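Structure, all two chains, one model.
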Amino acid sequence: MSYNFSHLKALESEAIHIIREVAAEFRNPVMLYSIGKDSSVMVRLAEKAFAPGKVPFPLMHIDSKWKFREMIEFRDNYAKQHNWNLIVEYNKKAYEEGVGPFTHGSKVHTDLMKTQALLQALKKHGFDAAFGGARRDEEKSRAKERIFSFRNEFQQWDPKNQRPELWDVYNTRINQGESIRVFPLSNWTELDVWQYIRMENIPIVPLYYAKERPIVEVDGNLIMADDERMPQELRDRAVMRKVRFRTLGCYPLTGAIDSEADTIEKIVEEMMTTTKSERTTRVIDFDQEGSMEQKKREGYF
Amino acid sequence: MALNIEEFLAQDEAKDLLRLLTAGSVDDGKSTLIGRLLFDSKRLYEDQLQALERDSKRVGNAGDHIDYALLCDGLKAEREQGITIDVAYRYFSTNRRKFIIADTPGHEQYTRNMITGGSTANLAIILVDARQGVVTQTCRHSYLVSLLGIRHLVLAVNKMDLVDFSKERFDKIVSDYKAWLDAQGINIPDLQCIPLSALEGDNVVEKSANTPWYEGQSLMDYLETVPIDQDINMQSLRYPVQYVLRPNLDFRGFAGKLASGVVKVGDEVMALPSGKSSRVKEIVTYDGNLDEAFAPQSVTITLEDEIDLSRGEMLVHPTDMPHVGHHLRAMMVWMDEQPLDATKAFYIKHTTNTTRAYITKVHSRVDINTAQRVPSDGMALNEIAEVSVTAAAPLIFDSYAENRQTGAFIVIDPVTNFTSAVGMIIGEDEARRGAATTTVNLSEYNLHSEEYDTVIRFCEELRARTGIDIECIK
């Protein structure tokens, strides 16, 4: 008898095992929810891990206050329908000071509204483990990160001093104040994620599908005019274009692509024939060479 | 393409997954080979290529060629040194299979990274430079591959273009290598030797016209077709309980991932270490109940009877039992800058079970340059030795050779929490088997019930330190 196991089933089983391991060994875990497609897959895997029971940890969204409006709507509906315990946190001080990408630039905005907001929230709730939906195929520094990735008391990652990680035996031991970031989708590729969404019928934010949207071209990036906080002179240049988003984040920092793909099948087809990798639509990666590694060392996901 | 997208997706979703490890010395062209596999399988995107061309001009080491190696060197500091330091994972797929590459360094002091990268691999590629032939590092990597129990090994004889694609040179390297394996008693179940030029692409994807004398498959062809479904142990059911699910009073499920074997509804199963028996009532998943499950599926099992079973314990078939005991012998690899301290009560994590343990004796160390045993009574970073381990709580284990999941453990430093070592179990420690068992009846000692736990912990500590089994009865 031969037992064939497809790669998607293998990846699913690996992720469920990782998620259960965290629930069993940590005192106070949380699942970071970015509202993106990877998060949607991760959340489904958590539901699978504990069925027929309820997932024993909350979801947390770090709201940079500059997400697409459709993302926030989707988040609130999803949490309600699926009865999730959803925590939403943001950097209150920076928000009240009016920090944003148009006025402060992407580097300052990302540091204060994403990295610092995350660190504050983790500290506030005393979480000792945080799931993230990052994949190793996204970016070079992620390719070297462990599935259970240790953070010191300052939430920093030390790429040179990672714990060896063997088989599926994960070291979950930490001292007071330290924590672990856990990446159940480490071994998934972008195509795996789309195939799984299709196979499992997982709901995703409509921004992933092509539609006519008001678009402004900024330094070669197709930025959507999502609200009136975009400076008037930019908004005046907006034209309707059929676009979709390959990744979702802060709307001023997330470029769209021209696309006709309005179904998952068309998205996959487009992906298979496309010549750009997904992070080219993320403005923050281009700040400096090795910029993602720098952000990760400082505590970003 | 004749397929429509629906057909393509259906076919693609059914592909299996092969995990492979690559190892070689610093200049064997390993990163170049990986870059080549990624490039040729057309999974390299245009913008990654543009960044690559830009970086090649500035820090590249490949002259006028595109430096494929830069695809694999992620971290900034490492890129400046021109070598990969840690394990990096790469993904590609072909029409027949999906692949995960663990790219690990050939650099001398980083043995622990190769061990890390190789622990889940189905297959290893070891590169040698055709001009150099089999060198010390080739032997070291081959020993590590056999230690990790990787069943499929490719000896990739690279840079054949620099020896004029000489058959004699290739044959000599292969026969030297096989002679070395034989001399060390290293048995690789499936060994393929392939003459390559990673830089020029010979025998990487297509068979090369430069090696008409070579009758085997190209590297890619072999990677796509090597059968791996026999690599997992499907004989012995080992189901380590990971998490107990109790959503309501009527449901008590044992969640876990099958480490090996197959389980069916109705099977008689035994819970270890308690020895209590029951039958499998249901195999529950989010997607509906199953009639049977096999490794490495993650499922939830419910039993006919209410038996005591918790995380760290195991369900097995009573007809196919693992070892249960406190004392074992293992091959251990030391991964920590701090050398082994035999007086330390380490944690060991084995399947889902964590317990205190002592490394009670180092029997001999392996010189991995020669694979020969040498006397030793300690262990330092990157050293490999045969050791005796005594655990405070019983372990439910098999030998690593029989079962890669239940034969493996990690050793955690109780102070730093670093993963100090990893072990591959040889078997029970014969010398310690049947060490005297003493029974202490706690009710005879006029103790408060709150004090029981302290005494039990003390006995476990004593057992771990001395190897004397002391059983406490309340």
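The beta strands of chain A are 29-32, 59-62, 86-89, 129-131, 148-151, 179-182, 211-218, 221-224, 239-244, 257-258.
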